[in-house]
Fold this protein.
Amino acid sequence: MQLQTKVGFWIGAFIAAGLLLWLFSGVLAPFVAAFALGYLLNPVADQLERLGLNRLGATLLIMAAFLIFGSLTLFVVAPALWRQLSSFIVALPDYALKLEGLFSGVTAYLTEHVSGPLLDRLGVGRDVSSDLRSSATDLVNQAAQWAGAFLKSIWTSGAALINFFALIVLTPVIAFYMLLDWDKMIASIESLVPPRHLGTARALAAEIDVALSGFLRGQALVCLFLGLWYGIGFTLIGLNYGLLIGLTAGLLSFIPYVGSLTALLLSSVIALVQGWPEWRLLLTSLAVVGVGQFIEGNILSPKLVGDSVGLHPVWLIFALLAFSALFGFPGLLIAVPCAAVLGVLLRHAAQRYRASKLYVELERPAPILTDLDDGALRAPRGR
């Protein structure tokens, strides 16, 4: 009954936590961002305390420096981003029409010179090719219309703007209180752990801290590099909205695979429409993305992030899809940290299972009878 009670308690706790996350997913974004910010800045506050400042003074100094740096960055970058975003939303229907025209021209050429003769040889007829071309064209038009409507709804939606400004305003405030009371929160959590399990809990917390700190700090530096690389690179090659695309892709790179796909798709579409019929702009934009991904995948991520998360890419993709389906965009933000925590807990559970009597008894082989052992069981042979 004791084992059943423990299992039932933890299953109920996980279900309750998931239910709370699902219910409050709409307001989680500033709290997730503030927790990550407080977690990243806590070692700096500890270092300032060792230099003689109290916790309040260290927290005020850190947040003041953060706000000054953030404000300067916004004043320098925000006007250019605002102009590019408003221009991009206005120009999106024209880009969609040009892309549809290019797609129709390319498919018509392929139908006439490639797929048409091939279908004639197969005896199928060219109606199939024309139907496929018409369906593909309709699909492109619908996707462009949906994207335009979605961006316009975000642009004109008061709720979206309120949530965005709430994220900007509330995150530093929540992070200030979290950073100020970080040690108290940790002590309160430790007080809930039974004393006989405190050593194990601290060991697990240290392992989780290594995984999370390695990922968050390393991935933040990777995002900063990619945002600067894409933004400056796209701007230098003359790509329209290059700074907007680059910084957006760099910010979304905190979510694995999302930032790189965003940079690749948006830059390719804009470069194709802007530079047609020449391919130079498309090829240079692909080169910018390719070099950035090479540096990130072969130099920065192995050095800064490494294997701190300890998750297989397949399980990482599953975690992203599962958390996004359950909690929306905040789920994407917490998918990798939660998966890292679950990975540490599952590895600990596997170690405890291998050390348990159940595993030892299952692993122990059955005794093998030898001639000497079973000699008494066999009847003596007659002469």
